[in-house]
Amino acid sequence: MSEKYDVIVIGAGPAGYAAAIRCAQLGLNTACIDKSVDREGEPTLGGTCLNWGCIPSKALLDASHKYVEAKDHFADMGIKVGDLSIDVPAMIARKDEVVKGLTGGIKGLFQGNGVTPLHGTGKLLARHQVLFTPHDGEPQNLETEHVILAPGSVPVAIPPAPLTDDLIVDSTGALEFDSVPPRLGVIGAGVIGLELGSVWNRLGSEVVVLEALEEFLPMADERIARDAKRMLGSQGLDIRLGTLVTGAEVQGGEVKVSYQDADGEHSLTVDKLIVAVGRRPYTEGLLATDCGVNLDERGFLYVNDLCATDVPHVYAVGDVVRGPMLAHKGTEEGVMVAERIAGFKPLVNYDTVPSVIYTHPEIAWVGKTEQELKADGENYNVGSFSFAASGRALAANDAQGMVKIIADAESDRILGVHVLGPQASELVAQAVIAMEFDASAEDLGLIMFAHPTLSEAVHEAALGVAGHAIHMVNRKRK
Ligand code: FAD
Ligand code: AMP
User: Fold this and answer.
1) 263 with 243, same domain?
2) CATH of the domain at 457
3) 11-25 pLDDT, tens per residue?
4) Which residues does ligand 2 sit against, CB inside 6 Å?
5) DSSP labels, 9-77
6) What pLDDT digit, counting tens, does each position of 70-91 carry?
7) Is residue 22 domain-resident?
């Protein structure tokens, strides 16, 4: 029997590695088990987010955005560029370098903070003990006081579109194309489908996105979703709603996709097909049958608001538990559990989890949508401000979209903030801070913002809730 740990974390994604680091910082003897390996077969930390998710997708989104800027928009600003071309292998290699730097950074953080990395597979046994099977060794039982399960999620597969080596791929495969596919199909107009569809569309693919639902981005505010669909459409993303994919097969080096819509059966031929129909909790091989941890009806590990499972001393955090599958939500849960184990009493506020879609313009929001409030019969006021009236957005030649703030009609407390526009991912943080401090729209309106900034659009939208926006025609005269 090896040494006894205070905490063993299974999974080194943003939920698990944050939990492990915080435990170690709080003086707990902590190990973190992770089984991921990179393309060279070397162990890698950081989970989906750093290796195959948030970071590589943003590296390609940023690179492809710069290309479109140079190709289509530099001339508007008086910048002439000569022959412009894309080097896809170089773009992918830069993305890989970014990933390598960050995953190496987690290794350094583990070393510096005193987390023991264990490369291999972890399994929860009865009495909250852990079976660790190293990549290159015999299984061993590890004794520990507490266990934090953070095994994350994996892409959902659908029977009509089985993956192939390189033509029908999931999000991981779509980050590795070695050239721009002339025709690209994407199944699913969710966050991942839109982001990866945008990357390749910007680089020159003709992209068709097939989405079973009739509604576009049902989780976003309706007005924002409508405007976003129009803008993405004008960039060339052909988003077909109400289309259910019923088959996909490789024929002569191409992919033939069959789908149904209200008009009947259709087919589409593409060079590559990305299956982006969602992710599911990853629990295969994680739990011994007698470990006592239960799953909920959708296959997530069952936890309470404090991320405690049904077994004392065993917690679960991140994509494997209920709630949005977002890195920052998992990180906050991991830190909360670490601090609770150490005797502190933090909470996660699930009402202020921001959502972002990194298209261009970006789409970001926090809190309730207008349609949710309407359905709940709430009374509310709305203030909005268009980036077309923002000096900074116009100066930057990036003036599409709007900020929309919804506040309670009686208390003026901010209930939801929705941004479609440049740097929406950054702007939404202001709304999260305001909502965490229970701010009213008036509170936000009374704060001074630097000029000229994109943030002024948030300020003006807050003022607009009571009809006080300065850079808008306002006849309420209050
Ligand atoms: P993961 O990151 O999935 O990590 C879990 C780790 O546990 C993995 O390394 C896995 O191999 C390991 N593991 C699992 N089981 C075991 C076991 N039994 N033993 C040992 N190790 C095990 N989220 C955002 O917030 N912003 C974004 O911009 C964003 N973009 C994304 C883009 C793409 C293309 C994808 C696919 C996802 C994106 N996400 C984004 C989602 C984000 O990646 C996840 O929400 C996040 O990674 C979840 O973190 P986690 O720690 O719960 O799990
Ligand atoms: P998300 O869960 O946000 O990543 O979004 C995935 C999207 O894929 C959802 O909007 C689903 O409706 C959609 N989807 C799932 N299966 C199919 C299918 N067979 N054909 C078209 N769209 C699908």
Assistant:
1) yes
2) 3.30.390.30
3) 999 999 999 999 999
4) 158, 160, 187-192, 210-213, 244-245, 276-278
5) EE--SHHHHHHHHHHHHTT--EEEEE--B-TTS-B--SHHHHHHSHHHHHHHHHHHHHHHIIIIITGGG
6) 999 999 999 999 999 999 999 9
7) yes
